[in-house]
Amino acid sequence: MSVSGIGAPYTPPVGGASSAASSPSAQIGKTSAQDEFLDYMNKSPAERMREMILGELGVTEEELRNMDAQERAKIEEKIRETILEKVKETAEKKTGMIVDVAV
Predict the structure, then answer these.
(1) Which residues are bridge partners to 3 per DSSP?
(2) How many angstroms separate the Cα of 44 from the Cα of each of 39, 40, 73?
(3) Which one of 37, 71, 81, 92 has the fewest CB atoms closer than 10 angstroms to its CB?
(4) N- to C-terminal Cα distance for the chain?
(5) Which helix (H) or strand (E) holds 24?
(6) How far is residue 88's CA from residue 83's CA, in Å, rounded to a whole number?
(7) 3-state DSSP helix/strand/coil % of the chain, to nearest 5
(8) Span 7-54, pLDDT tens digits
(9) 69-92 vs 45-57: helix axis angle to the nearest 10?
């Protein structure tokens, strides 16, 4: 059986759950979508926001750690400014306006 869609067709492995691809030794070094989701959900909202802002700036945490002190300080300041802007935007939104429905 194969499933076609966008990209190459997908053919499931033969042998079901007992196949070599699902053995623990084959999974070492690989993360599943579930693992990635759980890692993301275990982060605090501040950590998720920081990760999002770094992504917008095109910088990873590892790259940030490897920067010199001045470059890192500039990026950290941009992160602080972006967080403050987002907090202000949220605070300025009118409360009580949830949905405008026309029947």
Answers:
(1) 10
(2) 10, 9, 22
(3) 92
(4) 48
(5) helix 24-27
(6) 9
(7) 60, 0, 40
(8) 555 565 665 444 444 545 445 667 789 998 999 899 998 889 899 999
(9) 120
